[in-house]
Structure formats: C-alpha cells, structure tokens
Amino acid sequence: MTHRPSGAREVVVYNWPLYAAGAACAVAGAASARRLQGVLRAAARGGALLAAGWLLSSVAASWWVYDRSELHAYTWLPDLLPDGLGDHLVVSGGLDEASRPLSTQGSQTIADLCLTTTGSLRRARDRVPPSPRAVAARPDCLPVESASQDTVFLVFAAHELRRPRDRENLFAECARALRPGGALILVEHVRDAANAAVYGPGSFHFFPRAEWLRVAGRAGLRPSAERRIGTFVTAFAFLRDPA
C-alpha cells in the first residue's frame, strides 16, 4: 500500500495536545466572559476569539501547504537544482517523507537523527517508521564520506534541533559531506509575518530566516536560491563553493 504523505489531519494528530490546549483556552475565555464585566469581559472574549481563530487558521494553513500545494510532488525542486540531485543524502529528524519521492534519481543515503525529544516526534515516528535503509546519525556525525554527495536534503528536520550548537554541527556536517559545488536543500517554515499570522504562538517553534543564513554561513555555505512553497514554507539552496 502506498503511503499518503502527511496532511493537515496528520499535523493535528501529531500535535494534538497543542490543539487541545488552544481549544481549552478558547472555551475558558468564552466561559469567563459570561461572568465578567467591562474591560475584563472584552479581554476574555477577545482572547477566546483569538485562540479559536488561530486554531482554525493553523489547520487551514496546514491543509493548504500539505494537502494542496506542490510540496510533496517536488515540482519546485528543479528551480533550486537545475542539474538534478545526483548522489544525495536525506537527513531525517522525526518524520521522513522525503526519501521515497527523491529516490528516483542518483544514489541515495538516508541518515536518521533518531529524534524523539517531543511527543509530536514520537507520534510521527509511530505512524511513519524510519526507512529500513536509514542509518542512525547524530548532528555532529553523518554516515557518509567527506565530499561524497552532490546534494544533501534537510526537509523539516533541522528545526527540531533546538540547541544552536546542534544546528551548527549539523550544517557543518552537511558541508563536509558535499562535493565542491554541491548543494544543501533546506525546507522549513520560517518565523515571519505570514506564519505568525496563521500559526500564532505556534510560529515560535520555527526559526527566522536569519538563523538559517547564520548557520549556513558559519558552515561555509552560501545561499544560491530560495523559493516559497504553498505561501508558508520556504525552500533554500546553499552551495559549497568549488575547490
């Protein structure tokens, strides 16, 4: 049976405690507003409406990105990799849905960072187990030889590394793995106005664009292309300079 890539329904399942907390805030705010007066009543009612609005807008944005956009079809990839994938490494965090569609080109290696630091990651891994071809890895140790890969993919994996040092180590390892002229493809939600508007406080789980530019630059990688996918996701291409 062919696995359907995760959509809005799965996003809610993976993160159900957060959605439950948002719903509880909306209900509590609405209930409190009935017992309060004046400014406090208006504040409680406004908070309830805001919580309910973010719940609805986050699900709608996830549906647009994961169910309706070109994200999972990878039709956007030639804009970043006009010469194709070549030999490539897919680095997975908690949920690997990139290796299968990318496996049709070149030789593929899958590195699994084995992240289970949050409930959402554990639920995602339970539903979509790592590929049997995946090799266990760490941010500071990827299972490939130096200068052996044409492309390295980080698709919704790097933001799960919450410590700056881990992100820096991962990007340094990606740079080590790349051949001169090779590309790192990073796909992430970024913390910007669009994502903050629809995900509300949830957008603080994303990192700003400046953080990805920082860790890439520290690893000696330079930005070469950038593309928006489904309004709320950004795909970056960072190149290792030719020798």
What can be said about this structure in brief?
The chain has helices spanning about 10-15, 15-35, 40-70, 75-80, 100, 120-125, 165-175, 195-200, 210-220; strands at about 90, 110, 135, 150-155, 180-190, 220-230, 235-240. The protein is α/β, with parallel strands linked by helices and about 240 residues long.
Structure, explained:
This protein starts with 7 loop residues before the first helix and ends with a strand. The chain is an alpha/beta fold. It folds into 2 domains: 8-68; 74-240, Vaccinia Virus protein VP39 (Rossmann fold), CATH 3.40.50.150. The mean pLDDT is 94. Helix content is 44%, strand content 20%. The protein has 9 helices and 7 strands; from the N terminus they run H-H-H-H-E-H-E-H-E-E-H-E-H-H-E-E. Helix 1 crosses helix 3 (38-68) and helix 2 packs antiparallel against helix 3. Helix 6 links the parallel strand 2 (108-112) and strand 3 (135-136). A 7-stranded mixed β-sheet has the order 3-2-1-4-5-7-6. The longest helix has 31 residues, at 38-68. The protein has helices at residues 8-14, 16-35, 38-68, 77-80, 99-102, 119-127, 164-177, 193-199, 209-218; strands at 88-92, 108-112, 135-136, 149-155, 178-189, 221-229, 233-240. The chain is elongated.
